[in-house]
Amino acid sequence: xxxxxxxxxxxxxxxxxxxxxxxxxxxxxxxxxxxxxxxxxxxxxxxxxxxxxxxxxxxxxxxxxxxxxxxxxxxxxxxxxxxxxxxxxxxxxxxxxxxxxxxxxxxxxxxxxxxxxxxxxxxxxxxxxxxxxxxxxxxxxxxxxxxxxxxxxxxxxxxxxxxxxxxxxxxxxxxxxxxxxxxxxxxxxxxxxxxxxxxxxxxxxxxxxxxxxxxxxxxxxxxxxxxxxxxxxxxxxxxxxxxxxxxxxxxxxxxxxxxxxxxxxxxxxxxxxxxxxxxxxxxxxxxxxxxxxxxxxxxxxxxxxxxxxxxxxxxxxxxxxxxxxxxxxxxxxxxxxxxxxxxxxxxxxxxxxxxxxxxxxxxxxxxxxxxxxxxxxxxxxxxxxxxxxxxxxxxxxxxxxxxxxxxxxxxxxxxxxxxxxxxxxxxxxxxxxxxxxxxxxxxxxxxxxxxxxxxxxxxxxxxxxxxxxxxxxxxxxxxxxxxxxxxxxxxxxxxxxxxxxxxxxxxxxxxxxxxxxxxxxxxxxxxxxxxxxxxxxxxxxxxxxxxxxxxxxxxxxxxxxxxxxxxxxxxxxxxxxxxxxxxxxxxxxxxxxxxxxxxxxxxxxxxxxxxxxxxxxx
Length: 618
Known about the structure:
This protein is of the alpha/beta class and 618 residues long. It has helices at residues 65-68, 96-106, 115-122, 128-146, 150-153, 192-223, 241-260, 269-274, 325-329, 334-358, 364-375, 380-393, 399-415, 423-439, 444-457, 461-474, 479-491, 495-508, 515-528, 532-545, 550-562, 566-579, 585-590, 599-611; strands spanning 73-76, 82-85, 112-114, 154-156, 160-163, 168-171, 227-231, 266-268, 285-297, 300-309, 314-324.
């Protein structure tokens, strides 16, 4: 899969990439190379609609839902475990490990678990390689037991094992009706980690009977004043099925972006109409409604999207555009992704305004967002403040985002030279990244942030490619995923493909509060590919917003020198030395800057030498 990328499993051992023109640059899993982001083709020809798998399971992976035609499995976890098909067939796997694995998935948020989490609970006393083999064998047994139904109800990839949303009904799952001791009766697999999990689950069910009604009442009282977004029914012409599908796709795109960033207070009237239980039990007061109208005429679709402030029934944001309906359904229409980004940002703005207007307290999603904004200010105190806020959120429902952003925060500390590559920092980044993926392996933002730490900090480009491609499959409209992926291309000697990714990320994130970061990636990849004038354009834009960003200063210095603008190169180098005293090419190598060993990295160093950067080793 990765041989066309010029990668090995040896971390930064990429000496074979010094002449990238001789490599067979075949396309990777989702075809991001060579023809990436042309006007005709934005991503890849999807047969399945990918969505973020959010904890409440309402906006989860929806590609197979249309083929289900209803819920397909009934699972009984109290008493002897049973798995029954919709026709009453007994589909219970024969081995206890298989039954335990299914139970652990069905009790998880979103009915999904990471492979690592499952191995740690079911084969904790085995070496990792043997645990991975045992997991594959167990999944094979489950597939065999389910037969043809396996492909309809299971989602299995390199990272996770999950059930398709709405494919499973959990029976006898009410703590008032059954004894907690009956949970997974008779299952004993002899693994201490599984036994600990089982004990905690039984304890949770024993508490739920008395505590749940009181907790729900208290939670409802707290949430009445919380800001919520209401999703209204799409406005379409009668019996226009294509218009409904287009509208649902656009609405799902906005919801996915919000959910990945931690915004969970969403009342979706579409779900309430189809399934009363899916609408959620908590009556948040909706402050803003999202309405989408679609009218189709042949292949084209006219789309109007609007946010309505419900108190005064006034429009606070609106966009209209015309696009190819099939392109929207297949995820190929770039304008619709940009509009979705704009809409999500507008929802956040309205939330902040409502909180100031009505003096509402911040919730976890607000604190994550504020911490990220602090982080992108790049100052020492900004990063410290962001770290404190994110660490306080780890135990909350926003913990996966907090963990992923904390790991990412340390890349800024390394890049800005506030910290060095050290074993202790590496260990912390690994732990934070692993925990983030374990808690939410289907969040495109979590996947993308982990991909960057793997590439920038550890030089594990193989793993980074897997994570970035997974992120883009989950949500092709996530600008930061494209942006961080673009820089990886520069590290592995493919700056032309990286520049296409970077341009696209900048297009998607044009209204982002940290747009300078997207300009910086365009600068890096354009400079590495030899497009120095374009690199200077992006670099000057980034400098106008964030003049102390070391990465921008380095690459802009090299691009000025290559373009023959020697005075500007010297002036920018002077500013760089003020921010990073003692900067030299030797220090750059000592800091393990990725990609320097490629042909393009060597050309970057050549530009620095032209500008007058010291190199003691020469």
